[in-house]
Design brief:
Number of helices: 16
Number of domains: 2
Mean pLDDT: 81
Shape: globular
Strand order of the largest sheet: 1-6-5-4-3-9-2
Strand content: 15-25%
Distance between the termini: 52 Å
Radius of gyration: 25 Å
């Protein structure tokens, strides 16, 4: 005979106070009057229950990202872009999270990869007074939210480690409102802030490190305009290690005389499947009713991306990279999709399959798609400059659809198929992608070069200080991504003021 499942738990009170109780309601009213419930309204609008017993970190993060109105930039279901637990899979496989949960550092990594500004603190690097200040700051505003990582046992609740957002604060009673994402277990509840600190000031057995809290807010603009680093595929581990750890050692151990030697050392030893690591931020759409017109939103985003691309191509480092690749010692086969070579239809098919993967919410790999009838066109729209569109009929075995990928382009080098009148370049190309990546490497990467004149030249070439603002912000974000991904892999991540530091 099947046993009946569990239906909720009785909330141990004290120490917690049920949000829906008479006392809980009174605390709520008083907190509203004191102005420390401002963040509550956005959070409660997007409050969700974790869909798996171990998904508390994913549910808390998706709830906060939606409350902040951060656009995931890819489809969830149907035409809708929306954060869901199933989309937070880039830093840790969902199956692993389902089986073992997720660490504090990996949630910070996910928040960063999702496009949020993150300040994260473990309790052994913060204080109760600082925590109280941050809680008060976020609860008196609706543009910042706190996610707490704590041990349930401190509140006499069943279970161990847990994540949930803080929905409000009562200054008079010094109590925080926990919006428990395990709503099948406990309702939202008020707890003494000092006790919440004690619950956070515990050690996670899996990582051996302290728990803590993180402040999540919006960035002034979308961080990745043209390029982004991806930790969705397994190859990112070896690539991040190579770029951060191995390249500095190689440069310091070899007799490096000029820029050609530097580029040869960096590029010739790149790990396999490097194309999965640094990606071009695509604008992807389904073709509807055969229409090819671009919306105002699409035009504006492409215009910004084309400006970033233009800025990349105007710097001195780009000229060195282009010259190196033109000598035939390039890593073309590394950056372009495997087996594509210089065959434009194959490149277009690969781009369309990646676009179909994005439209599918990245729930399936682009390897399961096949693409036919590929074409690269340049569209003129109302007198605007030409826009490159890579199109293809993509199938995953269950059906097919026509996918358009809008590409930042510049008028040179490559003739578009079926147009015959306009030339344009399909990106990402080896030279601009590799230039962006070199700029994103940590400053200390080059310090081991013994030739002083060469070292000074490189420092000038990779300096971000004199870059145009758009490109500078793009490169600094890539650099932050690289460092966070490396430390996320080592489970040594803390982010203070959105700058990763190892502690």
């Amino acid at each position: 005979m099947a046993m009946a499942g569990l239906y909720r738990r009785v909330l141990p009170s004290p120490p917690a106070i049920d949000f829906a109780s008479s006392e809980g309601k009174q605390l709520f009213i008083e907190a509203i009057q004191s102005g420390t419930m401002e963040g509550f309204y956005k959070l409660i609008s997007y409050f969700q229950t974790q869909s798996e017993p171990a998904y508390c970190g994913l549910a808390s993060l998706s709830m906060v990202l939606n409350a902040l109105a951060i656009d995931p930039g890819r489809k969830w279901k149907g035409p809708w872009r929306w954060f869901d637990e199933s989309m937070l899979d880039c830093c840790e496989p969902l199956e692993k999270v389902k089986a073992k949960g997720i660490s504090f550092g990996k949630v910070v990594c996910l928040a960063h990869c999702a496009g949020a500004a993150v300040k994260a603190f473990r309790t052994n690097q913060s204080t109760l007074d600082d925590f109280r200040k941050y809680v008060m700051a976020c609860t008196t505003s609706d543009d910042c939210h706190v996610i707490s990582s704590y041990h349930r046992g401190t509140f006499e609740q069943t279970g161990t480690g847990h994540f949930s957002p803080i929905g409000g604060y009562h200054a008079g009673r010094d109590m925080a409102l926990i919006l428990d994402v395990a709503r099948f277990k406990y309702p939202p509840h008020w707890v003494p802030l000092t006790l919440l600190w004690e619950a956070m000031n515990t050690t996670d057995d899996a990582s051996g490190r302290h728990r803590g809290f993180m402040l999540i807010s919006r960035l002034p603009r979308a961080p990745a305009l043209l390029y982004t680093l991806s930790c969705k595929h397994e190859s990112w581990v070896s690539i991040a290690n190579y770029l951060v750890d191995d390249v500095p050692v190689l440069l310091s151990s070899k007799d490096v005389k000029g820029m050609h030697d530097v580029l040869s050392i960096v590029f010739t030893s790149l790990p396999s499947k490097f194309e999965e690591f640094i990606k071009w931020v695509a604008e992807v759409r389904r073709r509807e009713d055969g229409g090819q017109g671009l919306s105002l939103e699409e035009k504006e985003r492409l215009s910004v991306k084309e400006e970033v691309l233009k800025q990349v191509q105007e710097i001195g480092l780009y000229k060195h990279v282009t010259g190196f690749l033109s000598l035939g010692k390039s890593c073309c086969q590394t950056i372009l999709p495997s087996g594509s070579g210089d065959n434009l239809p194959d490149i277009a098919a690969s781009i369309c399959c990646q676009g179909a993967e994005l439209l599918a919410g990245n729930s399936v790999s682009s390897d399961v798609f096949c693409c036919r009838e590929t074409c690269v066109k340049c569209l003129n729209s109302n007198g605007d400059r030409p826009v490159t569109v890579v199109s293809g009929m993509v199938s995953n075995g269950n059906g097919e659809e026509r996918v358009d990928v809008l590409v930042p382009s510049s008028p040179k080098k490559l003739s578009c198929c079926h147009s015959g009148k306009i030339s344009c370049t399909v990106h990402p190309a080896n030279n601009d992608v590799l230039t962006a990546l070199l700029l994103a490497l940590p400053w200390e990467t080059w310090s081991g070069i013994k030739e002083e004149k060469l070292l000074q030249e490189i420092r000038i070439l990779v300096s971000t200080e004199n870059l145009p603002t758009l490109l500078q912000e793009e490169i600094l974000h890539l650099r932050s991504q690289l460092l966070i991904m490396k430390r996320c892999k080592d489970n040594k991540i803390t982010v203070i003021c959105d700058i990763p530091t190892e502690i």
